TrEMBL record:
<dbReference type="Pfam" id="PF01425">
    <property type="entry name" value="Amidase"/>
</dbReference>
<protein>
    <submittedName>
        <fullName>Amidase signature domain-containing protein</fullName>
    </submittedName>
</protein>
<dbReference type="GO" id="GO:0003824">
    <property type="term" value="F:catalytic activity"/>
</dbReference>
<dbReference type="InterPro" id="IPR036928">
    <property type="entry name" value="AS_sf"/>
</dbReference>
<dbReference type="InterPro" id="IPR000120">
    <property type="entry name" value="Amidase"/>
</dbReference>
<feature type="domain" description="Amidase">
    <location>
        <begin position="30"/>
        <end position="425"/>
    </location>
</feature>
<dbReference type="InterPro" id="IPR023631">
    <property type="entry name" value="Amidase_dom"/>
</dbReference>
Length: 457
């Protein structure tokens, strides 16, 4: 090997370890070297123990070949609001400082049983429920936010500090850091992956998120989690020349200060690349009833359910709870039960409608974020483009490839009907083949040895 193993994808690493060309201990040491080099700048990790990592690597190396799982050799980062049996889970909250639940969350247990090394806990905003940034910086420019609330997970994967990482999404907390850090991010269909052991913000919205530097790695994770379509997609992605895409701006396009120059440029260039590849591309405006979701009824559900799920922390120590979360409990926004029921019922009625609409296309293309990562670490950015899709429970994949004039990455989201996650990954691989190098010359370079490939199919 000419490159340290932290610059490989998870899938490449698994293959080399299985072939006896690489040990898990060496993989761990390569990642620790990267951590020691870059953590003083990126600060992606809320908790990491070198001795525990090396001990776990030695245990994995001692497992006979025939008993090894499909993630054997993979370094997995876990967002610090997801329980781990051998590490603290602190939620970026003084209420949970040094708290050790002593049990793995469902998704952690699945990946550990599949052979992954649970490498450390990544920074989150408080309870993954605020936009006040933790100390993590963007992998491309540490003066900028990596996004949130899965701040450290997006930064760590982008910076080659772990192969894969877990995020979560209630609004845009997986897709936004994926775009800001220039990597692949997947929000599966709601309910497709267990949320056992994850701190609950909104039971109706919360979804585990997945980060990787390759689509093949996301496919590997999906297989481990048994995220299966009723009709499996073809093993080889359908050519773009046989594909049809709907571009959907949503009513959030003109919200706030409107779309940024980099979003407009990515939108237009992405279309041209698909058309040049022979794809059919149409502009689609969703029926007006979808306009009620993004800045309205999604928020009613989030605030209404946050009122319930932060009550215990409020009762125990209100003074050490973020004031915005205390506001949820106190219902300062005035979300009535009638408003909450209207949000539940109206969005539920729209889910089969979006399935039917999205099912007419290979994927819907929609913005991931309004623009590049914000300067400063105080706020994690704007999730307005993501909340509608989260509420609709559909699977989403951020595909990177585009850049701002400042050299910061920006991606676009592909959307499919519920429980067509495998097909969406299949389509995403074809689309990524057209988009990944679109603005390569404009992107800032994350320090890495020659030959290191940041994102790939």
């Amino acid at each position: 090997m000419t490159l340290p193993s932290n610059y490989l994808t998870a899938s490449e690493t698994v293959a080399l370890v299985a072939a006896g060309k690489l040990t898990v201990t060496q993989v761990a040491k390569d990642h620790l070297a990267r951590y020691e080099e870059r953590d003083p700048l990126v600060h992606a990790w809320a908790w990491l123990d070198r001795d525990l990592i090396l001990k776990e690597a030695a245990r994995l190396d001692a497992i006979p070949l025939e008993k090894r799982g499909p993630l054997h050799g993979v370094m997995l980062g876990v967002k610090d609001m997801i329980n781990t049996k051998d590490m603290p889970t602190q939620h970026y909250s003084p209420l949970y400082k040094d708290s050790r639940p002593g049990i793995d969350a469902g998704p952690v247990a699945v990946c550990r049983a599949a052979g992954a090394l649970v490498y450390g806990k990544t920074h989150t905003t408080e309870f993954a429920a605020t936009i006040k940034g933790p100390p993590a910086g963007n992998a491309y420019d540490q003066r900028r936010t990596p996004g949130g609330s899965s701040s450290g997970s997006g930064a760590a994967v982008s910076d080659w500090q772990c192969h894969l990482a877990f995020g979560t999404q209630t609004g845009g907390s997986t897709i936004r850091p994926g775009s800001y850090n220039g990597i692949f991010a997947m929000k599966p269909t709601w309910g497709a992956v267990s949320r056992d052991g994850l701190k609950v913000y909104s039971i109706t919205l919360d979804t585990l998120g997945l980060y990787a530097r390759s689509i093949t790695d996301l496919e590997l994770l999906a297989k481990v989690f048994r995220i299966e379509d009723d009709v499996p997609p073809p093993p080889v992605p359908k050519p773009l020349s046989e594909s049809k895409f709907a571009y959907v701006k949503t009513n959030m396009w003109d919200a706030g200060s409107g779309p940024s120059p980099e979003l407009i440029a990515a939108w237009d260039k992405s279309k041209k690349l698909l058309v040049d590849a022979g794809a059919t591309v149409v502009d689609l405006e969703l029926p007006p009833e979808f306009d009620t979701i993004g800045g309205n009824r999604h928020l009613h559900i989030m605030l209404g359910e946050g009122r319930v799920n932060f009550l215990s922390e409020y009762m125990i120590d209100k003074d050490n709870l973020d004031d915005g979360l205390a506001g949820h409990v106190e219902n300062r926004s005035g979300i009535s039960r009638k408003m909450l029921l209207a949000a539940y019922d109206s969005i539920a009625a729209l889910r089969p409608e979006i399935d039917a609409i999205a099912g007419q296309y290979d994927a819907i293309v929609t913005p991931s974020v309004p623009g590049e990562a914000w300067m400063g670490l105080e706020k994690t950015g704007d999730a307005r483009f993501c909340s509608m899709w989260t509420a609709l429970h559909v699977p989403c994949v951020n595909v990177p490839g585009f850049a701002s004039e400042n050299g910061m990455p920006i991606g676009l989201t592909l959307v499919a009907p519920r429980y067509e996650d495998q097909r969406l990954l299949n389509v995403s691989k074809a689309v990524a083949g057209a988009w990944l190098k679109a603005d390569e010359e404009k992107l800032l370079k994350i320090p890495a040895p020659e030959g290191a490939i940041h994102t790939q199919l």
